[in-house]
Design goal:
Number of strands: 11
Order of helices and strands: EEEEEEHEEHHHHHHHHEEHE
Radius of gyration: 19 Å
Number of helices: 10
Largest sheet: 4 strands, mixed
Strand order of the largest sheet: 1-5-7-8
Shape: globular
């Protein structure tokens, strides 16, 4: 089971030796490729061999590139690795609008419930209870846009009334970074299960190659929110230590199918359940994550 996240922040040469990733900086170290879940390439001063890229794809390791502000701006994910990809794509294309709307209803209900739980963990019980009640009113397809209403009230309660997602501050920088990391992991899972990520159940932008990924991203967002609220203050700088912790969000505990799993495992369980839901034409088979207090998962 892969679990390690590797963050490269200094000039580095990446190569492969005996099926281990060889990291050459001032000194050398190696990591078994089967242990690696993701690699974040933060500096442009990285030399990487084609053999590394090939083995990362074979082992379903996701690689992130970053811009000058260290924010992920691209992902390298495995291609065409499902044995019955055409069958999966046909089932994806043949979903009814009713089925997709019901799936979206479940996604938004779980997102709002997770937001409510985050507020309660942060001692904001009144607003948490309010969002719990709001989640019960989400209808098929969320045509009344409860998601947006909940999000506005949630962020203002969690980060204070003056907060807005459009601000370029430490909180939003960390939120965007954390969302990008989880989004990349979901993209890897979506592709590995044979789906076309551009075809969503709700998101439909022709300019977005990851509509389905963004659909399933929604219930995971509160995990990032909770970490940022708990760990970030105005006086902090967006340094490599904070970025490493945000990458490690993939190893935090969540609950899915009644069991505690890492975020990474929960993503795969969710996408597998989506396949079951489509195959059985039963949207209730879709499994979604429940947020838990911040704790790194124990791989035993």
């Amino acid at each position: 089971m892969s679990w390690r996240s590797v963050v490269i922040t200094r000039p580095t040469k990446l190569s492969v030796k005996n099926r281990q990733l060889k990291i050459t900086q001032d000194e050398e170290c190696t990591i078994p490729i089967e242990d690696i879940s993701s690699i974040v390439l933060e500096t442009p001063q990285i030399s990487i061999s084609s053999k590394v890229m090939s083995l990362m794809a074979d082992n379903k390791v996701i690689m992130y590139s970053c811009d000058d502000k260290h924010l992920p701006n691209g992902i390298f994910i495995p291609f065409a690795i499902h044995s019955r990809e055409l069958k999966i794509i046909k089932s994806q294309l043949n979903q009814t609008e009713s089925f997709k709307k019901r799936c979206w209803q479940l996604v938004i209900m779980r997102k709002i419930l997770n937001q409510a739980e985050v507020l309660k963990m942060c001692k904001k019980d009144f607003m948490g209870t309010h969002l719990e009640e709001m989640s019960k009113k989400v209808n098929s397809g969320d045509t009344q846009n409860r998601e947006a209403i909940a999000a506005k009230e949630y962020f203002q309660s969690l980060f204070a009334n003056r907060f807005a997602r459009s601000y370029d501050d430490i909180y939003n920088i960390c939120l965007n970074y954390g969302y990008s990391i989880i989004r990349g992991a979901i993209a890897r899972s979506v592709v590995s299960y044979g789906y076309i990520p551009a075809i969503g159940i709700h998101h439909k932008s022709e300019l977005n190659n990851y509509n389905l990924v963004d659909d399933f991203m929604e219930p995971f967002r509160p995990i990032v929110d909770l970490w940022v609220k708990t760990n970030i203050t105005n006086d902090l700088k967006f340094d490599k230590y904070i970025r490493a912790e945000l990458v490690n969000l993939l190893n935090l505990d969540v609950k899915i199918q009644g069991k505690v799993q890492s975020v990474n495992n929960a993503i795969n369980i969710m996408i597998a359940s989506y396949t079951t839901a489509i195959t059985q034409n039963d949207y209730k088979k879709l499994e979604l994550p429940e947020v838990l207090p911040i704790k790194v998962h124990s791989y035993e």
